[in-house]
Amino acid sequence: MTAGTNVDALVVGAGLGGIYSTYLLSKMGLTVKCIEMAADVGGTWYWNRYPGAMSDTESYLYRYSWDKEDLQTYPWTHHYVYQPDILKYLQHVVARHDLRKYMQFNCEMKAATWEEDSQRWRITCSTGEIILARYLINSLGLLSKAKYPDIKGLETFKGKLIHTSNWDDSVSLEGKRIGVIGNGSTGVQVLTALAPVAGKLVSFQRSPQYSVPSGQGPVTAEYRADINARYDEIYKHVFNSNVGFGVPESTRKTMEATPAERREAFQKVWDQGNGFRFMFSAFGDLTTDIDANKEACEFIKSKIDEIIKDRRKAAALKPTELYARRPLCDSGYYQIFNRDNVDIVALRDNPISEIIPAGIKLSDGTVHELDVLISATGFEAIEGSYMRICVKGRNGETMQDHWKNGLKAYGAIACSGFPNMFIVAGPQGAFANFPIVIESEVRFIMECINYAESNRSIIGNRSNGSSTDGHADGLDKPGPTIMEVTPEAEQGWSDHCDSLVVGSVFTTSKSWIFSQNIEGRKVNTNFFFGGLNAYIDWVKKETSNGFPGFRRE
Ligand code: NA7
């Protein structure tokens, strides 16, 4: 067997989760290596370089919470950070904590196999290198494998075809005839940014979505000083909240308000901006009460009518489904349709019949000639990153086998049969602000590793003859040195996630949140909808109770 580089822990991916994992593992004193298929750090923010790409979490929270000095000193100029600035921030964190020395770029994990004899993971890289690791932390990205539209003739298009997550900076867009397929959060951002640049811009829209203003704009020195003075309090609130976006989370019932009060409440959050604020701050039941949800729908549709002058375009942009997807926000999306160079094609009335060399042909025979076709069609979320590689756990079981009946992971971080392997931003994590979710999951993973390491040292001390009375969990015997979740615990978590979506308005819409954006894929509860605070409380119980979900032999 080929020898390989030996490390205690291998982190795969150098995005938000991989960087934080690398930082904590190195602090724990373990030997750590982080491999990344891209040429640099950033993860999602390395790849998604399309015009207008920005986070829709407010800037003061789109950063790590754990470096308090950096929180207060690292600059941010606007309420929302654009992709180049997020990338710079992540590069800055890596430099500030001297993490680059652990990282190897242009190196993709192709396969990982658990070896019973050595109790290690054997990782094969795209470079041909072999790495042997006791712990494998996969931070491959939730939204990493691009999904192209399955439309006849796509490959025949003679212009430039670009997926937003694999942007090609060399393509000139100025004055070009540009078509965009997809109008989720990515589509809305790219369309808004390209409207003033394109000669002609057409949105080929299958399902209109609800979007609210983001409230983007420069921040004042006073605003920044106020945030800096309150960071401890802010993060305390965020980690104790349901969605972690720093917005108030109302418990008020929509239908108990009068029509005038409802409109006033919706108008207030519309004016303040932010999709999560709109969904969770005016009232507390938009995601659980259909009548309440319909009120929000009517309010946003009335705004579409107010903003868009052309009745045909306004009608096309009005959704028919409930407000039940990841909430979108924008920097003037509906407004772009008042421009003469921007049009919308409602595919629900006139579907694409095929893509031809010159552009897009619709079912009624209309041809839209295009120079550039942008696919903002999303991702093979979560599992996409795992299905393209071969990860084999105990008895040769692959992740493909393991997830064939649906995606699941205990506490979002571990799968049974995959010992000492952890997942960041895998299935069934909290549906909340992602940097915070990632931090919470990484901390849980580190608790697991720390626990196993403590047990190792107890056993090591005993076999060295040194006496030690302490046990990692205070029980009579040391706990496991290999962390492997039981199938019962994993299934229990998954069942719990399923039970939490019963009655949720979110189940009425088809999106990647329930794996419904991919034809033929089984509907799956991909998130834990119990709230970020409940997830964190559950992790605390799990760790203080000696990790009952993990095997003890
Ligand atoms: P999304 O939210 O999955 O959106 C994909 C969009 O692409 C959506 O509007 C789809 O319409 C559309 N789509 C996909 N396939 C087709 C075809 N064949 N024809 C027409 N339209 C199509 O991806 P995003 O990148 O916007 O956002 C993903 C996440 O990234 C987001 O939640 C943020 O957290 C960041 P559909 O609605 O399926 O009818």
From TrEMBL:
It comes from the Eukaryota. One of its GO terms (molecular function) is N,N-dimethylaniline monooxygenase activity. This is Cyclohexanone 1,2-monooxygenase. It comes from Clonostachys chloroleuca. Residues 460-482 are annotated as: Disordered. The keyword Flavoprotein applies. Keywords: FAD, Flavoprotein, NADP, Oxidoreductase. Residues 460-469 have a biased composition (Polar residues). InterPro entries: FAD-binding_Monooxygenases, FAD/NAD-bd_sf, Flavin_mOase-like. PANTHER family: DUAL-FUNCTIONAL MONOOXYGENASE_METHYLTRANSFERASE PSOF, L-ORNITHINE N(5)-MONOOXYGENASE-RELATED. The keyword ATP-binding does not apply.
